[in-house]
Amino acid sequence: MSTPTAVGPAPDHAAGYRAGRTLPLRVEAMRQLRRRRTMVVGGVLAAMPFIILLAFQIGGTPGRADRTTFIELATSSGLNFATTMLFMGTGFLLVIPVALFCGDTVASEASWSSLRYLLAAPVPRARLLARKFAVGLAFSAAAIVLLPLIGLAVGTAAYGWGDLRLPAGISLPASVALPRLAIAVAFVFLAELVIAALAFWLSTATDAPLGAVGGAVFASIITGVLDAVTALGGLREWLPAHWQYAWADALQPQPEWGGMLQGVSLSVSYAIVLLALAFRGFARKDVVS
Description:
By secondary structure, the protein is mainly alpha-helical. The protein has helices at about 25-35, 35-60, 80-95, 95-105, 105-110, 115-120, 125-160, 175-190, 195-205, 210-225, 260-285, and strands spanning about 165, 170. It has a two-stranded antiparallel sheet. It starts with about 25 loop residues before the first helix and ends in a 6-residue tail after the last helix.
């Protein structure tokens, strides 16, 4: 009589399976790059400097107001034009691509009923989120850099290369202003991390991409409105919108870093909490889409 053979537990995965090889960044990046919304956002941001230039050509040099701003100095040089584009984009225009790239990424898969098939690949849930958020951040960074970069090229071609004129009535040499402008762009990206994380969290909580993107944009608008309520006093310093224009401190003759550091610290802190909520919620979510 033969002795029964012990049967061990069934393997958790197929032979040769490696979780670290699933959903490569390159594959996810190419999927997002080929999407129509990516091309539309890129086209709109690339066209904005030309639209503003055309407006200046038709309307003439921006008029001088009682309080000089970067917009009034836009035609002074290519650096001024690039700074103006960053000034115009901060607060709303650049919020939209960040919310779109980070808020549409998971919810769109659910709306297409393809999310469960991605997880059945099988792609670990934490890896799926990490890959999608990393690609969303990369595209957000590209969008934030694209606007002032095209503005610098268009402005230099139209108004020449020169020093950066400041609203205070002084100028920064171009050799000093260019790296300072790069720091300002980096600050804008870091300040938008809270919007990126909020949009991503909403994207894991809903199957409606428009709801995730719209929710993040709406939150940005609300914080901006609240920041304008001076009666809130020191409470406004806890609003990300309160620090969104702190990058202008980097363009002063003697840069002030305090406001930028507070803005980045607040944005990163909020982003960590929101990302933790996204990973925790998605790990327990019953994915049926």
